[in-house]
Amino acid sequence: MSKKAKDNDLDNDLTPSDIKGEVLPTAVDENLPPAANPDTGAPTTPGAAVGPPPKIDTHVRGSDLVPNIEAHSANTGVLKRYRYWVGVTPSCPVEGIDIAGVNFPKMNEKLIPDPQRSGETKRQGVVGALVWLTEAKIEKLRAHLPLTVIRFLKDPGAREEPGTGQNIGDNAARPRKGHPIRIPTPAEVRDRQKKGKPTRAYSPDMLRDVPAARFMFAQLCPNQEHPERGEYYPPVLEVTGLDWPDRIESLVADLLS
Questions:
Q1: Contact status, residue 99 vs residue 107, Cβ threshold 8 Å
Q2: Domain ranges in the chain?
Q3: Considering the entire predicted model, what is its pTM?
Q4: First to last CA, the chain
Q5: Rounded to whole angstroms, what are the CA distances from 70 to 34, 76, 246?
Q6: What are residue 131's DSSP bridge partners?
Q7: How do residues 190-229 score in pLDDT, each as one tens digit?
Q8: Which stretches of 61-145 are assigned E, i.e. beta strand?
Q9: 85 vs 77, more confident
């Protein structure tokens, strides 16, 4: 066998792990930042020939020159976050509820691009909002929701709007009105009394007070890259509770172990 044939046979026997310094192509998500600098080895002058980067002896490892982003995130409190579809249902007596720094709106507006360049911005009504929630926010919601109620007014609402005739169940129907109430804790009441501030304890109305969670929903978006609202109103927080993906994975792992 000739020397050239032997060389060809050796090349055919090589595996990707045997090729030193050669980077095999892999699928890259264009939406994510590069895992390595893509400019290494590219010519600095347009039109110049592309060649491998020069080999440089160094006593400093490349891993020592990059920050540990995960460690910094943990130290500064920057934790994982997930997209949720949140809001209140149509029967809620208020247009939205702000709690623990999260807004749960009944309706919102989505700006529609103007492809025909008419100069008019189109607005489309959408249900609720798509928001980021962290585990810390989930904990705050868990602490605040049991202390939040909605007190309905004595006005029974309306099934018929003047000038529209009989309208039952559509947009012309006006639901009952109300307002949210936050129940102060005993410690908060004592603290305000010590400081001489006006203090008003919560006086429950068993007929008109209902939990705010009965009208609120927070649904984890199945597609985190492209979150969307659902086609139907989801069950409310009074029924579903609050889901945190990492907690669910931990519980499933415990059940399977």
A1: no
A2: 81-112+130-256
A3: 0.60
A4: 59
A5: 16, 10, 16
A6: 84
A7: 888 888 888 788 888 988 999 999 999 999 999 988 999 9
A8: 81-88, 96-99, 102-105, 107-112, 122-127, 129-134
A9: 85
